[in-house]
Amino acid sequence: MRIGVVELEVGHPETNLRAARRALEACAAEGCRLVLFPAYLGNVLSEEGMEVFLRFRRGELTRAAFPDWEELFSRWARETGVYLVGGSVLVPAGSEASPGYANLCPAFSPSGEVLLRQLQTHADAEERERGLVTGDELGRFSAEGFVVGPVVSTDVRVPEVSRVHCLLGATLLVVPSAVPGYSPWAQLAGLWQEVQQNQVFGAEACLVGELGGLSFRGRTAVFGPCEMTPGKSGFLAGFSSFYRDLTLRYMGDETPPELQEPWDVAPGRGTALTGEGYRILVVDLDPAELRATWQEYDIFGELNLNLYRRHLPEVYGGGER
Amino acid sequence: MLERIRDALLRSLLYYRSRPGSIRRHLAKRDFSPGDNCKVIDLGRVRVAAVQARLTLLSDPRDYAEAMYHYVREAAREGAQLVVFPEENGTHLLGMLPGIEDMVRDRPIEEALGELGDVNLADLFAFIGEAARRVHIATFSTLARGFGLYIIGGSINLPERDGRVYNETFLFGPGGEILGNQRKVHLLPVERQWGLCAGDRLEVYRTPLGNLAAPVCMDGTYFETYRILVSMGADIIAMPYALMEKYNYWTALRGAWPRTQESYAYSVYTTLVGKVGTIEFEGRSAIFAPLEMTPRGDGVLAETADHLSEGVIVADLDITALRERRRTALRPDPALCSRYLPAAYEEYARRPRL
Description:
The structure holds two protein chains of two kinds. Chain A is α/β, with parallel strands linked by helices. Chain A has eleven helices and 15 strands.
């Protein structure tokens, strides 16, 4: 399956709308069957949506009406004939008495049906303080021979989320992301390592630029198990600024020749596209490659279920929140 | 009949050569200063050492004690209060078997054992197990007492009474006492082929330095290990490794480093270097902390200079600060995890992906 992973540079809502639509069309023209957008896409496409995001950042609660982003994404998926993971959208949620926000990742089929509405299930201390309420369900959908597990924003730092997806068959984790500041280490500690400990593919689409007093500087990337990637880096694609920082700095003289020149997408994997306000990694993924990796060495083959049965109920305290 | 006599004689010889008194007498001639690193303990500054040890087959147990002594002395002189050795740190003692070095010099050990009939590596560890246990325990007990510090002596493959062989670690206290032992709970497929067995429990040891744990190597590949240990209170998780592959920065980064980030525990990651027969070990020992608790924001407090040399590194850990940060760290939602994880494991057991 060919996938398109879109990095969107946030600007004025009209510009964002135009850039997102063009990025989607560019992906479809390249033959992508699944397109992943970054976190908060549904907010940055309209002034009302942007206002909701800014209020969230200021810690103000709102019950403001919200534009019909779902109808828009559904139409876009239908018009381009792709599986569309519409990033995420921060929406007013909670009750009248206890308002808050939810971060929701919608996924659509090529015919425009809603396949999944995946809520972010974990919030860090700052998100909780700003009123983010979390979901309590995890869902997946099938696309072209893959089972796709959405891992929404902060959830990528909670290994249980990816583990549940992968135990239940996910072969591709998709992360709509918006990372404040630039820390390659935070990103490696996120999806890169989830991919390694579950031996699946992973794609992370980042929102970049200034928004709500934050500077989003995450790096869009596609990961695979180390064994199937150049130099065993775990990178199938990643814009060179991110990739080179890490590879050259830490492998030094031992950097394999194929990695010494900057590249965005691993040879034979696809291509990188750039347009006004966006960059895209177009990458080909094959489930047969995962199967070959597992046959070589399957991490899940050594899960110690008796150990988990013994200890984990206590870890999660009987399920009391 | 003759074979049984030979077998009994060899066991008697191993038993004799592994007598603890011989180890203790040998080490008694050594200098044990400084011996007071644990006299004053400040949870804001616990100094730990990670040993990058070289594996060599040693026929004389006193050579084993001597090699370990030098590592511990270096760590003690750097002020270490806890010293951690790598996985397979008892494998040096396979050298006690007469002829073993010649047997594995130019070919894989599995191939060499194949010539002996239905013998696997676990049988070898079982045969030498009692002698190796005596040497390992006498060595580290004497060193811990002599230098007055805590030691996790790396891992050693030891037989249980029922004949099963486990890869396990021991924690020695400053009085030389064994404070606990931990069996490896996640194996590599090759270890199963060797005939090793996985443990089924995890332990945390409460000490004045903080709460310690010592799972082994592949245990660090699974987030579940750290999640369980941290929920049991672990502050410092010793991760003895022995990587039988060419060093690669990225593949080495999997394991203890990401576990440290997602679980908020310090990791003392130790590796073995060197070559035994056709098996080569490479790796860089390191001491890991959560990203925001490291000066460069990369999760690394200390790391050895290269992946081929032996050496000792130290770092100071702030247990108090770690515990404070943990209070506000991102935690798994217990309701979500209870709802999904047990069922997901069971579902996977019914329908594995291969």
